[in-house]
Amino acid sequence: MRNPTSSSSFSFAAAQQQRKPAAPATAAAATSEPPLCEFGRAMLAGLARKPRSISPKFFYDAAGSQLFDRICELPEYYPTRTELRILGECAGEIAEQIGPGAEIVEFGAGSLTKVRLLLDALEAPKRYLPIDISGEHLQAAAARLKADYPELVVQPIAADYTMPLVLPAPMPGAGKRVGFFPGSTIGNFEPEEALAFLQLAARMLRGGGLLIGVDLVKDPARLHAAYNDAQGVTAAFNLNLLRRANAELDADFDLDGFAHSAFYNAPRQRIEMHLVSRRAQAVSLHGERFGFEEGETIHTEYSHKFTVDGLRALAVKAGFRPLAVWTDPERLFSVHWLGA
Fold first, then answer.
1. Among 107, 191, 223, 335, which residue has the fewest nearby CB atoms (within 10 Å)?
2. What is the pTM of this model?
């Protein structure tokens, strides 16, 4: 799953698809239905393709965000607390690598939670540039952060961090420009998309570096439990996507007609999350009718896992220099410092 403080977790391919409005199925639909929002266009396109899929970006309405907060507190879900532990225990060493007067660029910043551990350890950080697609949420979070760090220049940027963008020029006297990408959000990308994002980041951060949190390959049973918790919170989180479609898009998904499915695809080193049709059924959305066979799925998320060496090799391919890496004692999670 994504970084819990990020609302921008989706693929480059999905980003391109969501920029193309879906054509109405009929002239009647075109004249009688209001224009579809981004979520509606993506859902319509996702149901029309085979195999069916929808970007994990759309998990995070208010209800979905609350469910994900609960997931992060589950005993089975190790990534969030493990990364926080690494950042807390190794903050001094991380700060030594970054150096004084740094400008921090956080990709998919969201609520600006984890960066506080970094800011507390750094020597006189100069400026913080959080990037997130949700502008209103970002402005509110940035205002709270600024109140707590009055000496820090906080300059939020409402943008899609997976697309090329121009950052402000470095401030006079600033140290390194450092990217921050926690939460193993890199795992939500397809391999070629992960490489494309890292190449983009390497160009943006030239002369500085990237601090990135990455979930590691581990016992499949541990992974299975993390995405199939005993309380059923992850199942509710996955199914909430259909509830949201019913509420916002006037769809008629029968939530009892779909089941949560998450499994570890070992050859591809990734968790796959799907919604599985329990029976043959049909669903309506924006004047379109979509038939489902029993067992047919809607793919909702990938969460790729990495080895330390695999991530470092990917970083080299993208134009970074792998430097320090920190892990927890069980080697569940890793935080990498990559020189740009």
1. 191
2. 0.85
